[in-house]
User: Fold CKLF like MARVEL transmembrane domain containing 5 from Propithecus coquereli.
Amino acid sequence: MLSAWDRRNRPPEEGAAAELRGFAVDKTFLSSLKGILLETELDFLRCVSAIIIFLVVSFAAVTSRDGAAIAAFVFGIILVSVFAYDAFKIYRTEMVPRATQGDQQ
Assistant:
């Protein structure tokens, strides 16, 4: 069984750096077209999933007819509108222009 002393005595490439090698970020991929599109799609999906979650939680909260539940419903609807606007702006500014540029080439 390995102890903390055994890990300390190993060279760095066999220690923590080797364990984290799979989590390294490839900057050339992120700066390529596929990486940019992946980042945009994930950001858009984050907004859409937040909209769905907040709608479900808001409507579930308002069923109890308590004052705090109604406040939670209003707050959830405000958050849904903010995330919907964010998703709309992401779609208009980042996803549509790239799709039209690909059609022109």
Notes: The helical segments are 4-9, 16-19, 27-31, 33-62, 67-104. The CA atoms of residues 13 and 32 lie 29 Å apart. DSSP finds five helices and no strands in the chain. The radius of gyration is 23 Å.
